[in-house]
Fold:
Amino acid sequence: MKALKTLDDDILDRILTFLPDFKTLQAAIRSSKSVHAVFTAHPHSIVKAVAYNLIGPALLSAIHLIRNIPPYSSFSDPYTFGEAPPEPTEIGVITPKDARELSRNAVVVNTFHDIYSFRYKDRSTKSNRLTAAESFRFTRALYRIMLFADPEEEEAQHTARKEFFTVFPSPDLREIGTVVNFIEDLGDWLKRKAYSQDNSKNHAGQAKAVPPAVFLEAYQKLDPQIIDDYFDCVRLWEANELLDAYIHGPLGAVLRDRGGMSRPRDESRYSEYILDYVEGEDDVCQQCGAKVGIDAWTESNWEVQNEVLVLFRPIDLKRFRLEGRLYDNPREKSAWEAHIKDVPLHELLHDLFELKTPEYSSWSPQDKLCGMCLTKFMTNHIHLWLLQRKRQAGESIPKDCWFGYDCRKQFSNPGDLEHQNEFNHLCAPTKKEELSVFDFGPGVSLLNSLDVPRYAAGPSFIH
Structure:
């Protein structure tokens, strides 16, 4: 640190004002007596500068949060939203306690900020792609939501919520509404990601009614139980209407009183009023021509897209519809479930494109595809991938069945099992079976002329 001693105090002061956070500032102060002396001479200006570096232009909203947030432990004197003071116009003195609170909240806000970026701005990367103006709108709205999030208040206090929003101009309210939509969507995503079956709990409503730090922990750990534990009163679980109107109700009422639209249009409810533009917003599927926008699947976003859309969870891949009648084949069904168990979707897709059949010769991993076209491609190639995996594992592959994956002897009765052990069905048919009315029973002879797989004749095709 000898070099620091040769620098003028003005230069040292300038260096300190460019530090990114309070942790770095603290380390710098402890590193040298000369740095410590400069900080001691100008503590308030340096701390304010570092706070701005950490928070950005939403600093006033962040300051407002830490100085006015209601004490959650106080039930005798509950906080009334209608009495909340307006946001400050000046930062004031930032105390060490303020610095700790700002740092803690910034971790939450910045994490949500990055999640929002890759979910709604650009799904080709998890790095932040928001512009400075977009970042300001998002972070300011989230800090205001954090001040608002107090689900432990009595129901009667919800009447005061409208007053809370009256101090903000309409554009700011619409920004808040858009970020609330984003948090609701994350709540619904968490439910679909964490549960293999339907769950009746209102996670979208919960998401906006718990402190964002609580919800973020649940999101990162894929554990909705963290939110469940936060709500220690069954009444809150049952008050779905209350949760649904938690913010949108009073916010919408203020906008309606002002003669403005209360919520963004459905197709842009997660981006309107925050984002100036969305990467890939007008993309269409390169195979069927359907407009898919940011939901398009392409090699650069396979991993991120699967995290966002929850279309191919591990449990969904295990139950994936295989080609022809293969899913009715207990042997191949078990083999598929075993081989796909630890394979990420993006790795599977890379392998499938290496195995593509002549029918798909023009398809490329770089194509932008809708979910239906991607599913079709996967269905038509997974049997080839499974066969390759078996060979790589050193399994002995029997000779191909003439009827391949369309063979009707792929069920669990003893005769079929013997046939399955004798022949490989992970192949395209080289012969076509002649169907008879006796294969399906009386009243279904129409199927004879339709070339419909056997499982389509009854409910067994659903799994």
Residues 56-268 form one domain.
